[in-house]
Structures are given as structure tokens and as C-alpha cells.
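W.,

You were right to be curious about this one. When I first looked at the sequence I had no strong expectations either way, so I just let the prediction run and decided to look at it fresh. Below is the sequence, 339 residues in total, followed by the output.
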Amino acid sequence: MFLSSKKYLEQFRSLIESSGDLSIAVAFWGEGAQTLIAKAWKGRSLRIICNLGSGGTNPQVIRELIELAKEKPGIRILTLDNLHAKVAISETAAIVGSANLSVNGLGFEGVECAGWHEAGMLVHEQSQLIQMQEWFEHLWQQGAAVSEDRLIKAHIQWVKNRTSRPFSVNKLLDAPSNTLKNRNIYIAIYRLKASDQAKAEAVQAEKDARRSDLPNVRNTKLDFFEDWPDDSEEPLPIDAPIIAMRYGPTKRLTSVSAWVRIPQLDRTFVSTERASTVPLTMTGQLKRVSGMTFSKEDGPVLAKRLKPWVDELYLGAEPGTARCIPLDNFIEWEADQIG
């Protein structure tokens, strides 16, 4: 029986619900898969083979399935790095198809791929089921235990895949919130204006930049952060886009723009006002953030969206407090407000 997208999920859930002994060889697992298993499976034995090595599986989902196995002892999980199949086999039926469990190999999750067209076949022929069980047994013998070390390595690869997955829009402000998660984008919020001495040091840094052999340094509009050391609790990241803004005394968000650090231009100076050494962190302006445009006109629009979150962040904070926070934190906060 041929299964189109809607029927695919219905039949997959039905297969899980009706199976006493179920074997699933699905390469990539994403957010929501653990909930499906927890709610639908009530059988005796559930064997899962996933692929933790390619970066397409969210390791947190596997962690939650391992925790579920403590409540339901019939669940066993192995990993196989060269698995790319999408097969589920019970005593009486099997599904072979294109769909991973709420995720595809590019690292999309849940609603990110809700519009994708999937297809599969529902199999009842006993001779074919026997062949498929033999195939699964062969893979099961090749599988490896899911260790903590494997989960840590899988997390690193997962994050790398998530930051590089393509967008369906060209403009940052048009991107759905869920597609901005895990992009390694940061929000930097500062409160104080720069000192005259810091501005003078920045002028010298700009002169050095104009003499650079690197075009992306020589031709970039520069700015800086004063007294934001790399050993602070929330340091400014290197090699990641930083959306910076000032949260002034009137609690308005201004000067919202995107930057990336240029560490070779960083310097320190001895502040005459403080009689101490102060770092100057140099940045170059970005016109695109994770491949999407972010213009001067976009700044105030984003500021309006961020304002309630920033107000909450700064409740009771010291006047000069600066924050550098992953954009993911805001996305999660915003989702909580909507939910």
C-alpha cells in the first residue's frame, strides 16, 4: 500500500501502537520523536537503530529515549554510523519510506520540515517481512551501544549541522523563529557610552585595518566594545555574528546592527580615568547574518521585538551591566510568551 505524507504519519503511529515487538531502523531523529514513542508504544520489545555519527540526529532526543527505557525496559537503542534507512518492522506489517522521525539529514526539525512531501510503502506480505527482519538482525549485530562519549560527539556534529542548514528566506527578519535556533547568533547589549580615550584607540585600530593585507579587514566598517574582556562571564564570541544594541538610560534600544569580531585588531590601553588596563574589542560590520540580509532599516524593527525581553533581563541590574546572550534564549522566551 502506497503512503503519501498524511497517511505516512498516521500509519507509522498506528504501527507503533499495534506492535508487540517492533524494530525501527531510522537514521535521523529529531524533536518530537521521543514524544511519539512515549505516547504510542505499549508493546513488549522496541529495538531502535539510529545514526549518531552524521550530525542528523538530535542527541537530546536519544537521551530522552534512554530515560524512557528506564521506565519501559523493553526499549533498546543502538547507533550505526552508516545507517541511512527509514524502516519500521512489526510482527504483521512494516513501513519503508523517505521520512526520518521528525527530522531530515540536513538537520531540520519538527515544524521546519512540516511542508515536505514524504512517501512510503506499507508492507504486509509475510515473505517480505521475514526478509526485512533478517536485514534488521544483520544491522543490529553491527550496531554500537550509545555511550556518553558518543552523545557528546553527536552534539558537536549536530550543532555544526544546525548552524549551516539552509534558509528558505533571504531576510533575517522574515525567518520563522524556529529556523533561527542553533545558528550561533548572539545578542550583545551595552549600556554605557564609550570613553574618549577608547575612541582615540579605536582610531588607531582603524588605521591599522586600512594597512591590512586582508580585504575583509581593510574594507570593513569598524566599531568596538570597550572593557568587555574575553574572560568575562558572557564574553563576545569569535567567528559568530553579534547583533549589538545600546540599552540606554531611557530604556530604549538603539544602534541595532550586526557585527563580527576582528581579533587581530584588538588591543588594550591604560585608562587614565580608572588607572587600569582596559581591553578594546574591535568588530567589523555585517550586512548579512547567517546568509540573510540585515539592513539599517531592520534594526528598529528588531529592537521593538526584543524590547520586552531586554526589559525583563535588566530588572534590578546594575546601570553599567553588559550582556552577551545567544539569540536562542530570546527565541525560547518569545515562544513561552506566545504559548
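Here's what jumped out at me. The chain has two domains: 2-164, 172-338. And, maybe more interesting for your project: The mean pLDDT is 89.

Coffee later to discuss?

I.
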